[in-house]
Write a structure and sequence with these properties.
Blueprint (H helix, E strand, L loop, with lengths): L3 E7 L6 H11 L4 E6 L6 H7 L3 E4 L5 H11 L4 E4 L11 H9 L5 E5 L5 H4 L5 H15 L12 E4 H6 L9 H11 L4 E5 L15 H19 L1 H30 L5 H48 L1
Parallel strand pairs: 1-2, 1-4, 2-3, 5-7
Antiparallel strand pairs: 4-6, 5-6
Helix pairs in contact: 6-9, 8-9, 9-10, 10-11
């Protein structure tokens, strides 16, 4: 019998945690439901335990740290990740799980943005932020994912056990999507309903600070996953600036036969040198990245072989 694990990161969700657990039990009574309590100061852990979930404390604060521990600790054939705030209906889980077991996807993304998110979500600038991140990721990493930052996902074992969690906070979902695009995992999206938090339940997100963290992470991952393109941006900027500075003494030399602005000429030389160095860094790091991809593919092959031998 296939083993299904429902993963619920939890931080101060006593108002909704019981309903979320019971809803997932109803649609997947055979699944094990794991609630990793991230230093809640309310009765979330107590309520989750009473509702029949397996409750594990995670003392490192942040959703990324919670997911890191969940992926390391929990063994299953299919993993469903959702939030404990009752924003994602459990009724969509069977369709997502079926895609995983039918080998139609390595990761199934619960797409809120094509459903009720823009009407249900009342937090300022979140809609704009989601659209901005989606457009950035799809453009940089050549994807076509409709909802980058959704917390409702399903994974197969191979994805979970080979995903290196680097993020510590709410940017973890963006990191998952970028990793899947870069490593050519098979992605599918299921349109899911989105319900805003019930009255009295407070979001842990801060639009500005969390938005800045996500954007910083995109820049870091762009540098790591696409080093040639990243450093080429700086190479072109330095080259254009160097040529612009060089045009002034060149014009003087052509018209007067003298170079009166030596500092400008020196600056242009350093700019062009910086352009060459950036281009060289991009080439070297791109070669290292290709070696990393080769090693990663071999790791996937070993894991697949090990699973077949069980």
């Amino acid at each position: 019998m296939s083993n299904i694990a429902v993963l619920l990161p939890c931080y101060n969700e006593e108002q909704t945690i019981e309903k979320v657990i019971l809803d997932f039990k109803e649609v997947h009574p055979e699944a094990k439901i794991y609630v990793y309590d991230n230093n809640s100061s309310d009765k979330s852990a107590e309520i989750a335990l009473r509702s029949g979930a397996i409750v594990v404390p995670e003392y490192k604060q942040g959703k990324g740290n919670v997911i890191r521990s969940m992926f390391r600790d929990i063994e299953a054939d299919c993993y469903i990740m959702a939030d404990a705030d009752d924003t994602y209906p459990a009724k969509h889980a069977p369709e997502m799980v079926k895609m995983i077991f039918d080998n139609r996807a390595d990761m199934v993304i619960g797409d809120r943005l094509s459903s009720t998110y823009f009407t249900e979500n009342k937090r300022r600038f979140h809609n704009t932020g989601n659209m901005l991140v989606r457009n950035l990721i799809n453009r940089i990493f050549k994807g076509n994912v409709k909802d980058i930052m959704t917390g409702y996902r399903a994974f197969n074992r191979q994805f979970v056990k080979t995903f290196p969690v680097l993020s510590t906070g709410f940017e973890i979902e963006t990191e998952m999507t970028i990793h899947a695009l870069d490593k050519r995992f098979l992605l599918r999206e299921v349109v899911v309903d989105y319900n805003d938090r019930p009255e009295g339940s407070e979001s842990k997100l801060n639009t500005v600070s969390d938005g800045i963290r996500v954007l910083k992470m995109i820049v870091k991952l762009f540098k790591g996953y696409r080093p040639f393109a990243f450093f080429n941006v700086f190479s072109i900027i330095f080259l254009l600036a160097g040529l612009a500075f060089f045009a002034v003494p060149l014009y003087e030399y052509i018209t007067t036969g003298l170079v009166a602005r030596m500092p400008t000429l020196i600056v242009s030389g350093f700019m062009i040198l910086g352009s060459m160095l950036s281009f060289a860094c991009g080439l070297i790091l791109d070669s290292l990245r290709k070696q990393h991809l080769q090693s990663y593919e071999l790791t996937l092959n070993i894991i697949k072989l090990t699973e077949k031998q069980k």
